[in-house]
Amino acid sequence: MEQFFVVGGKPLNGEVEIFGAKNSLLPIIASSILVDDEVCIENAVPYSDVLAMCKIIEGLGGKAKWQGQRLILDCRNLSADTVSHEVASVVRSSIFTLGPILARMKSAKVAYPGGCDIGLRPIDLHLGGLRTLGAKVVEKNGYIYAGVLNKNGGDVTLSFPSVGATENLMMYATSLQGQTRIFNCAQEPEIVDLQNFINACGGQVSGAGESVITITGGKKLHGASHYVIPDRIEAGTYMIAVAMCGGRVVLKNAIASHNDKLIAKLMQTACKIKVKDDTIEVLADGHPKNLGEVETGVYPAFPTDLQSQITALACVSEGYSLIIENLFEARNKHIGELLKMGADIRMRGGIAIVKGRDMLYGADLVTPDLRGGASLVLASLRAEGYSTIKNIGLIDRGYYKIEEKLASLGAEIKRIKEG
Ligand code: UD1
């Protein structure tokens, strides 16, 4: 078991390259199941969640090969339609394989997904959407069994714009004859990236990034190469780190427009932010002004995946801040850890009322979930004294070598053996 050892109090300075987006890679890897050919994903990163998805592909008879930051997936010899509990329980995105397996094999047996413990995370919208599109879906003994009853496209309306359900249905619809429309779909940049990947493979998808996606399906997809968009949550995490610790950091290979809401909030705390082409420069004195109210929502609202990190910022910002989490009811386990560091936070329902303090203090901490873990790293960087952070395997799900990147900016953080 490994842990982080962090000595806080250092400003951050330098340049950091933002990696490819985890939340783009996961559905794109799943959609390689649709393609009876080799596909090449550029700007790929071996996050542990991504490695878990590659394992699922291999379990189905596909191949996954890494060449540096290129991931080559080959699903020509796909032979199985089953994702076992053993592999599905490792990663929430295992559910993304349901639509593509059904599309390709005409039957699917996929175990219920695992993933970070941030709330109930039902999959009713995925299953209901598939049923509306004519699939037979039965839930039994921890597995979802699906078969194809109707091969024609149709209309489906999501009662909530779920990212995963939108992606699953988009992928499934590529196999249906004629036109499928998904109404009230999610609009995240990663969905646009998935559309671009499917279209590079010869698919016909339009509307991603807006509320109605149209898929004209039934065409055989072919191999292609696709460059994955930068990870907006990784970029946002480093931007918040600078706001908390002070310094000047240039993020390279970042898309500022994907982080509009965060940039507006950081400017409110008196960070100076300059955007040029695909770089974002963040300059801060480490004494953030009042953050006010931050409320998470579906894109383009403030992302829930940056809620834990901005809560850490609120702990050292002037005055009172309100952090309102609207998507995941249990995404607040980092709060108890921040309290150990001297943070002043009260919870009222899903709202965190945070009174900023000049200083946090190092402590022995335990990562509650991926983004909650990132918030503890940020708080430890800002804190007086040293911290240890256990259970960092959860952080590795969505940050690759975070300690090396932060150390290159002047932070004192090391990965060490627990004990
Ligand atoms: C994706 C992201 C995750 C992010 C989340 C919200 C990936 C791999 N993960 O997760 O990092 O935090 O979007 O931006 O892209 N819901 C239902 N029924 C369903 C599906 C979802 O009620 O069938 C609810 C969820 O409980 C949650 C909300 O919808 O309250 C949003 O979930 P969803 O957009 O589906 O998130 P994920 O796709 O799981």
| CATH fold-level assignment of the largest domain | UDP-n-acetylglucosamine1-carboxyvinyl-transferase, Chain
Total strand segments: 24
Oligomeric state, counting identical vs distinct chains: single chain
- How much beta, percentage-wise? 25-35%
Main beta sheet strand tally, sense and closure: 4 strands, mixed
Query: CATH homologous superfamily of the largest domain - what is it?
Result: Enolpyruvate transferase domain
Structural class comes to alpha/beta
Mind telling me the C-alpha Rg?
A: 21 Å
Mean pLDDT: 96
* Outline: elongated
Instruction: Estimate the helix proportion, in percent.
Output: 25-40%
- What is the terminal-to-terminal distance? 8 Å
Cross-sheet strand order for the largest sheet: 22-23-1-24
The CATH class of the largest domain turns out to be Alpha Beta
Bound molecules: uridine-diphosphate-N-acetylglucosamine
Can you tell me the number of structural domains? 2
Architecture (CATH level 2) name of the largest domain: Alpha-beta prism
Number of helices: 14
